[in-house]
Amino acid sequence: MKKTFYSALAFTLLLAGCSGGGSKPASSAAAGPDTEKGSGVMTYEQYMAADVDSEVVIEAYVQAKQSWWDNTVTVYAQDNDGGYFIYGMKCSEEDNGKLTEGQKIKVKGYKSIWSGEVEVVDGEFELEEGKWVAPAKDVTAALGTDALVDSQNLKVAFKGMKVEPSKDADGNEVAWTYKWDGSGSEGDDLYFNVSVNGNTYSFTVESYLCDANSDTYKAVKELKVGDVVDLEGFLYWYEGPNPHITSVKAAQ
Questions:
Q1: Which of 2, 145, 153, 162 has CA 20 to 30 A from 239's CA?
Q2: Domains defined along the chain, listed by start
Q3: Exposed/middle/buried for residue 102 (C-beta within 10 Å: 0-12, 13-18, 19+)
Q4: Can you tell me the distance from the alpha carbon of 236 to that of 45, in angstroms, rounded to the nearest whole number?
Q5: Contact 4/209 with Cβ under 8 angstroms?
């Protein structure tokens, strides 16, 4: 599987999510996660302090997952203290159906860092009792600062982002491209540039997370340069911040 790190609106951008859009009921996030860790389970602080390639054991709540493939799945998870990117976790097709949003899991694997992204690899999981859907953390003010990395792998929000031009494979100015250089086609990752406070950033719709049939993918393809939008996603890292966007709506 790959690793990757977007005037008045000419159309109406509704809240667009990978599974069809819509906001979560407030109660799903309000209850809060269980902060008690089981025996032998690391806190987020202990996990971050662990040596690279060492065995780690974590408990967290699934917030989203990439597409299941070859008895593995990649999961974005979170607890009360931080986010986890669990890459290529062993998972049968049957068990994949149990990894619903908010499901608590215990994962044993190995800590890895890939191009700045802290992740769990070669993991195996157990389902645990508990449900929690994390609210998106607004990190707009942290863009362009060293503090942004403290939110790595969290579900995050970016407010009031203006769509800036990208360049397609022929050098034309466009609102988005297939792949980072415009060389792709339908079904590939989408890349787009957005700015706030005079600085421009590159964001991604990761097609394994939000495929071409998702509302998010379709919404980004409707963007026009100059549109101002609010975005949510997961703060993935690839040689710096590379958010994986999961929802798009007109700025409030």
A1: 162
A2: 29-131 (2.40.50.140), 137-250 (2.40.50.140)
A3: middle
A4: 19
A5: no
Taking the CA atoms of residue 235, residue 238, residue 239 and residue 243 in that order, the dihedral angle to the nearest 10 degrees is -30
The size of the chain, in residues, is: 252
Q: Please, are residues 105 and 126 in contact by the beta-carbon 8 Å criterion? A: yes
- Backbone φ and ψ of 33, nearest 5°: -80, 160
- In order, the DSSP letters of the chain are ---------SS----B-TTS--PPPHHHHHT----PPPTTPPPHHHHHHSPTTSEEEEEEEEEEEPPPBTTEEEEEEE-SS-EEEEEEEE--HHHHTT--TTEEEEEEEEEEEETTEEEEEEEEEEEEEEE--PPPEE-GGGTTSGGGGGGTTSEEEEEEEEEE-EE-TTS-EES-EESTTS---TTSPEEEEEEETTEEEEEEE-TTTS-TTSHHHHHHHT--TT-EEEEEEE--BSSSB--EEEEEEE--
Contact (CB, 8 A) for 244 and 209 = yes
pLDDT tens, residue by residue, 162-191:
999 999 999 999 999 999 999 999 999 999
Handedness of CA 175, 222, 234, 228 (dihedral sign): positive
Give the residue among 185, 248, 195, 175 at the shortest CA–CA distance from 217: 248
Compute CA 154 distance to the chain's CA centroid, rounded to the nearest angstrom.
Answer: 7
For residue 125 the two structure tokens come to 């999981």
| Residue among 150, 237, 140 at smallest CA distance from 196 | 140
